[in-house]
Amino acid sequence: MSEHPQARPIKGVHHTAFRCRDAAQTIWFYRDVLGLVDPTGVVLEEVTGTGENDPYMHVFFQMKNGEYIAFFDAPGSADPDWFARKESFDMHYAFEVASEEDLLAMQARIQSFGVTALGPVDHHDFVRSIYMYDPNGIQIELTYRLPDHDKVLGAAAATFDQLLADWQARTREEKVAKFGAEAIDRRARRPAQV
Predict the structure, then answer these.
(1) Looking at the chain, which residues constitute the CATH 3.10.180.10 domain(s)?
(2) Which long-range contacts does 154-163 make (Cβ < 8 Å, 24+ apart)?
(3) Is 15-149 in CATH node 3.10.180.10?
(4) Looking at residue 194, what is its pLDDT?
(5) 3-state DSSP of the chain
(6) Beta 68-73 vs 15-19: how paired, if at all?
(7) pLDDT category, 29, cuts 50, 70, 90?
(8) pLDDT score at 1
(9) Neighbour-count burial of 104, counting CB atoms closer than 10 A to its CB (0-12 exposed, 13-18 middle, 19+ buried)
(10) How far is CA 165 from the centre of its chain?
(11) Under a CB-based contact definition with an 8 Å cutoff, are residues 137 and 71 in contact?
């Protein structure tokens, strides 16, 4: 018998949250440019859970599948450097559209607001995407699934354990030099017993 309680199924994503420079500017981009529904939100004076005094607005945009993308407008604790454009590998958010026609229509819409939307870019025969940056330096991807999407990812899943093992062997030395063996070998630690 495992020492860990049985995992319960995770239903999906409720929200993904990011810091924003300004709520009104962020609402313009996500509501007006991308066409998400009118946001909702709350203003709180303290950080929930810590009680730290840091007034903030928490803004939520709901998508058609019920999931949200959310933002924190907390100028008191904001670091201006955080809003520099992030590299795609560091952070990006990918929204899904239904078809190539929708992707191209959205690209034209986005560009009509003066926002650059690069692409479309093909990704290994499973998705095609366009890319832009939001006002907070976050790369935004709009993507749609190509006909072989499930086949490509299914084939990758069948060999993923070996692919991971090979990748770990190939990159371990570089990672140890950069991050240290302790950081690479460490697994999440259990919290101290209360």
Answers:
(1) 15-149
(2) none
(3) yes
(4) 39
(5) CCCCCCCCCCCCCCEEEEECCCHHHHHHHHHHHCCCCCCEEEEEEECCCCCCEEEEEEEEEECCCCCEEEEEECHHHCCHHHHCCCCCCCCEEEEECCCHHHHHHHHHHHHHCCCCCEEEEEECCCEEEEEEECCCCCEEEEEEECCCHHHHHHHHHHCHHHHHHHHHHHHHHHHHHHHCHHHHHCCCCCCCCC
(6) parallel
(7) very high
(8) 57
(9) middle
(10) 26
(11) no
The side-by-side arrangement of strands in the sheet containing 139-145 is 92-96, 139-145, 127-133, 118-123
Q: Which two structure tokens, joined as six digits, stand for 180?
A: 């240290």
114 by Cβ neighbours in 10 Å (0-12 / 13-18 / 19+) ranks as exposed
For residue 37, the one-letter residue type is: V
- Look at the block and give the residue holding tokens 């590299």: 87
Contact present, 70 and 16 (Cβ < 8 Å): yes
Q: Residue 189's pLDDT is what?
A: 55
188, amino acid identity = A
CB atoms within 10 A of CB 26: 24
How do beta strands 92-96 and 139-145 pair?
Answer: parallel
